[in-house]
Amino acid sequence: MNPLGKTIYLEMTAPTEEDNRPSEERILQALRDKLSLSEDRPSAPRSDNSETDSPAEEIRMSLRVLRRLHSVCVMGNWKLTVSLSWTGSGWEIVGIEPGRAPLPPIGLAVDLGSTSVVMRMLDLETGNLLGEAGAYNHQIRFGEDILTRIFYAKDQPPHLEEIRQATVDTFRELMDLLQAKTGRDPRKALSMTVAGNTTMIHFLLGLDAFSVFQSPYAVVTLDPGFYRGTDLDLPIEGWVYCYPGLANYLGGDIISGIIATGLYREEKISLFFDVGTNGELVVGNRQFLLCGAGAAGPALEGGVVHTGMRAAEGAVEAVRMEPAGEEAPDADGTLHPVSVFHLKVIGGGTPTGICGSGIVDLLAELFLYDWVDLTGILQPDKSSLIQKRCLEDTGREELAVCYAPGLWFYQSDILEFIRTKAAAATMMEYMLDSSGIPMDEVNHFYMAGSFGAHVSKESAIAIGMYPDVERDRIISAGNSSLEGAQKLLLDRTLLKEIQRITGLMSYVQFGAVDDFLTRMRAAEALPHTDIRRYPSVMKKKQQLQKKRF
To answer: d(Cα 358, Cα 365) in Å, to the nearest integer?
Structure first.
C-alpha cells in the first residue's frame, strides 16, 4: 500500500549544546531518513528557481503543527508520532503527538452525488474498511435537479455560498455518522478523496457552475487537485483530493469509475456505463478510451413517474408477475393487485411508490405478459387491473395499471420511461458504431451507479435498455465512483494512472450527434423496433404464451 496519508513513529535525541538544530529541522531530517526520500520518492514538479527540488521542499510542516512542536517534543521526550498528508507534490506534517500513536491513521473516501453522498472511513495502514455512511445531499433544498441549483447560484454569490455550505454540511453529517458507528474521530483523517460530477465539484469548491450548462462549456476547472481540508471548511487534519473531470458533463465520478473497474488496463475492449438522470459512457481498453455523455432522463431515478420515488423506505424495488392468479374485482370494484404483482419493498413495509429498478421490472413484466404491446401501449382487455384513471395534475383520463393497492402506473409513465431507456440504449449503440466495434467484441459491460447496481439484468434486457448478450458479460460495477475514491486513497501511485486515463480519452457530446434522435426513435419500442436484436427476449415471451395457453 502507498496511501495518501501515513503516521511515522520517531525516536530522537534531545537538543544539546553540541547539537542545537531547530526542532523543525531535527524532525524533518529524521523523517527523511525514515522515508528514504532520496532513494525512493515520487517525481514532483520542479520549482521555478532551481533545477531540482531540495529535500526541505519534499516534506514541510503546517503552521498549526509548528506552533505545538516544542511542547509536544518536550512532553514526549523527543519520542513522537508524526502524521503526514500528501499534498500532490510532497508530504505535509499535519499532526504530531507525544509517544507512539495508540490508533492507526484513517482516511475518508467520498462519492459526492447530486442526490446522495456516501463516505467511507478506512484504515490507512491495513486498507480495512472501518465504516460507511450515506445521506441525502443537503443541496436538494435548492432544487431536486442539478439545473435548478445551477440557475439558483448563477451570478448570485450569496446563493452560491449557500449551496457550498450545504455541501459541507452534508460531509459533516456523514462524519458524525461515521464517528457514531466506529468510535473513531473523522476529524483526524489524514486524507480525503472526493469523486463527483463537474457541477458537484464546482459547488464543493464554491465555484459558479453555470458554465457547465452554457455553451461554450468552458468550466472554471476540470483538474482541481489537492486542497487543505480547512480551506474547504472541512474539519479534517489532512488534504482533500478531488478527482479530475474530462468535460462539463463527464466528471471525476467517471474517471474514478474507470480506476475502480480497471477497464483502462484491459487488453480486450469493454464498455462502462454510469446511468442515471444523465448517462456517461466509456468504451475502450488500454490503448484508447472513447467517451460521451448525454441526458437519459429523470425516469430512471423515479422522476416524472406519477408514483415514482427515490430508492428509499417504502419504494418498490423489484416486481414479478403471475397473471394466472389474477382475481376479479369485488362487488364494490376493489382490485386485487397483490394476487398478480409480487413486490419487494425497501424496508419491507407497505409500498408508497416505485423506484427505478422497480419500474424496469414492472415494464418488463407487462411486456412479457402482453399487458403492453411493442409500442408500450397498455392493453385493457388483458386484465381488469388496467383501467382508465383521472390524473390529478391534468384532470384528463388515461389508462393505468394498478400494481399495488392505491398505486397506479400510467400510460404516460410508460411512454416517458421508454423514451428514457431508448436514450440510454442509443448512447451505447452510437458509441460502438462510431468506434467500429461490434457488440460481440465487447468483453464486459460495466453498469455503474446506484441504478446499475440494483436493476435486474433480465428486466433491463427485456425492455431493450441493455443489449441482449451473454449475462456474464454484463457486470454490476456498483458505486464505482466510491470504489475509485477508495482505491486512490490507499494508493497514491494511481495519480499517474489518472493522468494516463485522461490522456487516452476522446469526448463525444451526444446532443451534437446529427442522427442521435433518429436512432433513439428506433429504440422507442419494447425491446426495439428491430426485434432480431433481442432473440432471448422474444423466445422468453413465446414460452410464456405457450405456458398460458
So the answer is: 11
Cα–Cα nearest to 201, from 169, 154, 162, 248: 248
pLDDT tens per residue, range 461-502: 999 999 999 999 999 998 999 999 999 999 999 999 999 999
Indicate the average pLDDT of the chain: 89
Q: Looking at the domain 106-242, which fold is it?
A: Nucleotidyltransferase; domain 5 (3.30.420)
> What cell was used for 10?
520517531
H or E element at residue 354: strand 353-354
The DSSP result for 467-495, as a single string, is -S--GGGEEEEESHHHHHHHHHHHBTTHH
Name, in order, each residue with C-beta under 8 angstroms of 326's C-beta and a sequence gap of 6 or more.
336, 339, 340, 383, 384, 385
**CA-to-CA distance for 244 and 503, rounded, in angstroms?**
12
Radius of gyration of the chain (CA): 27
- pLDDT tens track for 107-140: 999 999 998 999 999 999 999 999 999 999 999 9
What lies within 8 Å, CB to CB, of 445 at 6+ separation is 270, 271, 273, 466, 467, 469, 473, 474, 475
Cα–Cα distance between 494 and 499 in angstroms, integer? 9
Residue 50 binned pLDDT confidence (cut-offs 50, 70, 90): very low
Which cell numbers hold the place of 243?
478527482
The span from the CA of 541 to the CA of 375, in Å, is 15
The letter for the amino acid at 440 is D
Q: Are 52 and 85 in contact (CB under 8 A)?
A: no
Domain boundaries along the sequence of the chain = 5-98, 106-242, 263-296+427-548, 299-416
Query: Collapsing DSSP states into helix, strand and coil, what is residue 320?
Result: strand
Rounded Cα distance, 342 and 235, in Å: 47
Q: Which fold has domain 5-98?
A: Ubiquitin-like (UB roll) (3.10.20)
Q: What topology is assigned to 263-296+427-548 in CATH?
A: Nucleotidyltransferase; domain 5 (3.30.420)
Q: What percent of the chain has pLDDT over 70?
A: 91
User: Identical fold at 106-242 and 263-296+427-548?
Assistant: yes
8-state DSSP, 220: S
Q: Tell me which residue of 477, 362, 341 sits closest to 418, measured CA to CA.
A: 362
Contact of 109 with 260, CB cutoff 8 Å = no
Contact, 240 vs 232, CB < 8 A? yes
Residue by residue, what is the 3-state secondary structure of 77-102? CCEEEEEEEECCCCEEEEEEEECCCC
